[in-house]
Amino acid sequence: MKSTDLNIELLKSSSIGLVLSGGGVRGMAHIGLIKAMEEYELSADVVSGSSVGALVGALYANGNSVDEMLAFFKETPLFKYNFLTILKPGFIDTDRYFDIFRGYFSENSFESLQKKLHVVATNLQQGEQTFFSNGELIGPLLASAALPPVFSPVELNGQLYADGGIMNNFPSEPVREKVDFLIGSNVSTVGGLEKSDLKNSWQITGRVTGLMIYANNQKKLKTCNLLLEFRELEKIGVLDRKGIEKAYQIGYDYGMRKLGESITDK
């Protein structure tokens, strides 16, 4: 099925996969897209996510509403003084978020979710990506979103795991062959910059990292039947909580426009 002139009734009767990239606060655009999908009466059967995409995907698979998803990110503190640590390799102790997540995922298992969910995290010791889709839920979610060096790695089964985006920022692998139609939401885009945007080491590092991540995922992005990339998100900082509503609105507006351009009633 191609992404142009889609028949809405045919699409509703097809199995749909949704892949959500990492990208920090920019990932609120994923929630905007989900809202747009709901307005077109479209629902994904299988979801795969990395980093913030894993968190949004888990809330979506859990049956949480769009308002509840936004509340999760608004109410969960990114930086809390009593979460700071000098005992772990990270400024913030990721494990301290467990109880907050438990408030949303009380059963703490993939099997309790309403949709099939795949989450990717990076095994720092073995230097490889690991997909999680069964058993304990909260540990893999925390690991997938544990961006170094801000958040400490998470220990799972005796191994240290960190942000899934380190090795796989667009985890389409578990979904691609299992659905009729694949929707991709990529909030880690790269566009042109002015020289003034690259005037210090921090900006250069961020730019290089962004280019590497985007280059590594280009082939996978092209396998989507419908791909959404949100260029307007580039001016929103990855950890800028003030950008939550703006990123959500960008995702909703572009999602509605893109779906409207692609779907027909015929």
From TrEMBL:
Keywords: Hydrolase, Lipid degradation, Lipid metabolism. A motif (DGA/G) lies at residues 163-165. A motif (GXSXG) lies at residues 49-53. A motif (GXGXXG) lies at residues 22-27. Residues 18-176 form the PNPLA domain. This is NTE family protein. It comes from Kriegella aquimaris. Pfam families: Patatin.
